[in-house]
Amino acid sequence: MITDYLDESLIWLQREYHNRDQLFYDCAEKLYKEGFVEKDYYHALTKRENEFPTGLDMEEYAVAIPHANPDVIKKDFIVALTLKKPVKMRKMDDASTEVDVKTFFLLGLKESNSHLVVLREFINMIQCKEVIDIIEKTNSTAAIVEVIEEYCNKEDKN
């Protein structure tokens, strides 16, 4: 299911942002210009993240899976985004604590069933340190597609 929404044009590598809001704003602008989201996506994404943080501390690394409510999504998408330097995100399981995140997967799915399935797949995938190591270290969008496809194909067989 993840691979259904994965597109190399939405894999943005080794970016630099000072904070979460700058990252969200830049992503929102790009997604809006490409016709994936409504103009108010940035506000919806920020509001959702403030209410329900998505930072996941995996002990050796951290990942975030931000998403907005489906009413601001025009076309389904997944953005894979890596940073040169981490930004602070509030933890999903303890909003009073922040975690330094370098790997983001922004989900934009209109249908809630698809959203839940993809979210579950991401939760499983990000627990695989080898996959995240490749994603964080590569400068190749094709390599990210390949590692995610390989992981998903392996999981489908299990």
Automatic annotation (TrEMBL):
SUPFAM superfamilies on file: Phoshotransferase/anion transport protein
Any Pfam family the entry gives: PTS_EIIA_2
Tree of life domain: Bacteria
Every PTS EIIA type-2 domain range: 4-151
PANTHER family listed in its UniProt record: PHOSPHOTRANSFERASE SYSTEM MANNITOL_FRUCTOSE-SPECIFIC IIA DOMAIN CONTAINING PROTEIN, PTS SYSTEM FRUCTOSE-LIKE EIIA COMPONENT-RELATED
Protein name (database record): PTS system galactitol-specific IIA component
Organism field: Breznakia pachnodae
Organism ancestry: Bacteria, Bacillati, Bacillota, Erysipelotrichia, Erysipelotrichales
